[in-house]
Amino acid sequence: MISWRKHYKKTLIAIGLLLSTSASFYGQDGDPKNGEKLFKANCTACHALDKQVIGPPLKGVVERVKTEGGVDRDWLHKWIKDNKALRASGDKYANEIFEKYNKTEMLQFPNLTEKDIDDILAFTTNPPAPEEKKTEATPAPGADAAAPADKSTTNIVIISLLAIAGLLVWILVKLRQLVKLGQSEELTGLNETRVRSFKEMYEKFHYVGKGIIAILAILAAYGVWNWLMWIGVYKGYKPEQPIYFSHKIHAGEQKIDCQLCHSSAKYGKVSEIPSMNVCMNCHRTISEYNADHYMEPGKDKAFYDGEIQKIYAATGWDPAKQQYTGKTQPVEWTRIHNMPDFVYFNHSQHVVAGEQAIINSFNKKNPNNKIDVVCKACHGKIDTMNVVQMANDFTMGWCIECHRTTEVDMNNGYNKEYFKNLHDKLKKQYPQDGGKITVDAIGGLECGKCHY
């Protein structure tokens, strides 16, 4: 009895040890699903699972560091939390990795807990399979559905042929009646009063003819004038670009500020086309497209991935080696907004000095289509366009109308002091408007402002 109890106690101890070991093992492995969330939040800027980005691919990293450097999970915990301190301690493998990847220092993540790191490593070891998208299959039309359609088409053809045949019979009857009429005495009398030549017709109806010619001449002159006035006006123009770029995705969905790419629009005369290096600030780490809900109809992931590869080809970027090759290809963008050479337009004058005035004026005239950025007053709601197009006429009349209706902001210190005398004069001249000052009152209609 005593020996059985001893054996029972040993068995319980063994089971307890086994359970504790198993719990420790699974706790160390972590949760791959939570690790996926943490990986996307902290790691995807520099790493991918299956390819090198800025840093190495992380799929199977636990086994890889064990094979290459003879280190374990504890080493990975130290590396992720503070790789700089690990290298400073003289760790051989840590310094080898630092040298191998061009001395690019990895970010430190002291905020991650031990469990967070275990979850991330569990994800890199055994990433969950992506969920398959449910697609509703459209049932193919069967033979029974096709048969009534064919029968209906046949009936329409038969009815159309019968109608044509009836029309031909009616025409033949009328022709026969005309032939009989030509043989009667009534037609002889009509022939005597008939106009026999164009000259006789002109003499008889020359006043009507001259009136019609005059009207046609006026309409033709107006048509030519209208055509000349719209030369160079390309509202709605949206050319296809060598690299597809969606403002809806970048400025709309991702909320990227206009001036991050068009840096000279605010303080320069022109809004330059951004260089491809600006694109590479983000696309150095974004090498593929993974946002299905942003896709434009008719375009798929392969299309967007191909456009990103065009950026790499233009800049000479090798995504596999994560370095520039020096072989660049210039991108021949098609310009959309282009002022004639005899027109002077300064972006900074409108974006800085006139920003709030333009926004207020536009929103007052368009209460149901308000804007929050001054750029949209001229260029339209760019953040909703997949392909940029000219949203306005950009004619001289369009600019003048804006100058006549946009009220100058007299509350800022510069305008209040600079136009003080003018402001007082307008208050006396236009008391009914409260001395409202629009752009035309401060020289906005002077020819030399835009033409020189």
From TrEMBL:
<dbReference type="Pfam" id="PF00034">
    <property type="entry name" value="Cytochrom_C"/>
</dbReference>
<dbReference type="InterPro" id="IPR036909">
    <property type="entry name" value="Cyt_c-like_dom_sf"/>
</dbReference>
<keyword id="KW-0349">Heme</keyword>
<keyword id="KW-0479">Metal-binding</keyword>
<dbReference type="InterPro" id="IPR036280">
    <property type="entry name" value="Multihaem_cyt_sf"/>
</dbReference>
<dbReference type="GO" id="GO:0046872">
    <property type="term" value="F:metal ion binding"/>
</dbReference>
<dbReference type="GO" id="GO:0020037">
    <property type="term" value="F:heme binding"/>
</dbReference>
<feature type="transmembrane region" description="Helical">
    <location>
        <begin position="156"/>
        <end position="173"/>
    </location>
</feature>
<dbReference type="GO" id="GO:0009055">
    <property type="term" value="F:electron transfer activity"/>
</dbReference>
<feature type="transmembrane region" description="Helical">
    <location>
        <begin position="207"/>
        <end position="230"/>
    </location>
</feature>
<feature type="domain" description="Cytochrome c">
    <location>
        <begin position="30"/>
        <end position="128"/>
    </location>
</feature>
<protein>
    <submittedName>
        <fullName>Quinol:cytochrome C oxidoreductase</fullName>
    </submittedName>
</protein>
<feature type="signal peptide">
    <location>
        <begin position="1"/>
        <end position="25"/>
    </location>
</feature>
<keyword id="KW-0812">Transmembrane</keyword>
<feature type="region of interest" description="Disordered">
    <location>
        <begin position="125"/>
        <end position="148"/>
    </location>
</feature>
<dbReference type="InterPro" id="IPR009056">
    <property type="entry name" value="Cyt_c-like_dom"/>
</dbReference>
<keyword id="KW-1133">Transmembrane helix</keyword>
<keyword id="KW-0408">Iron</keyword>
<feature type="compositionally biased region" description="Low complexity">
    <location>
        <begin position="137"/>
        <end position="148"/>
    </location>
</feature>
<keyword id="KW-0472">Membrane</keyword>
<keyword id="KW-0732">Signal</keyword>
